[in-house]
Design goal:
The protein has 158 residues and is α+β, with helices and mostly antiparallel strands. It has 3 helices and 9 strands, in the order βββαββααββββ. The longest helix has 14 residues. The chain starts with 10 loop residues before the first strand and ends with a strand. The mean pLDDT is 85.
């Protein structure tokens, strides 16, 4: 899996009341295959540190309608089971089974997989630490790879 290291520049703003701050960064990915689950936990943690926000909320959002963001265990067997389960729910082939694919695309299954998987994940930040349990990791799920895609990290707090 190819992952582009380039991040869009971060922005940090303070509100007029001098307390609430917001931080924004885009992560860019290029998955050469059709599907992948990329662990982005470290990227989110880096943003939390850079933001200097002590307490607040973190939003991680897939910015494409054929991708998702979710929290789960980083265990290869679980990922294989998850991919197999999603493929049973919305098989890629035959592509002719989907009306959407009559538009010239072949990604109707990716739209459906994303619908099941979710588009965003949120969390709390408390005293410079993300509030995830030990086994919980944040993932970017790609269901229609082959071109550059992005996820948004937004942190708001004080």
């Amino acid at each position: 899996m190819l992952r582009t290291p380039a991040h869009a520049p971060a922005s940090l703003r303070k509100s007029d009341n001098g307390r609430v701050k917001s931080f924004r960064r885009e992560l860019w990915f290029e998955v050469p295959g059709r599907r992948a689950f990329l662990n982005i936990t470290r990227d989110v943690e880096d943003c939390l540190r850079e933001s200097a926000i002590q307490e607040g909320l973190v939003l991680v959002n897939a910015m494409h309608i054929t991708a998702s963001v979710f929290i789960n265990d980083d265990e290869p067997g679980l990922h294989a089971d998850y991919e197999k389960w999603l493929e049973r729910l919305a098989p890629h082939e035959p592509v002719s089974q989907y009306r959407h694919n009559r538009t010239g695309e072949d990604n109707a299954d990716a739209h459906m997989k994303r619908q099941v998987d979710g588009t965003r994940s949120g969390g709390r930040r408390h005293r410079r630490q993300a509030r995830l349990r030990t086994v919980e990791q944040i993932f970017y799920g790609e269901f229609d790879g082959g071109r550059k895609k992005r996820a948004l990290i937004k942190i708001v707090g004080e």
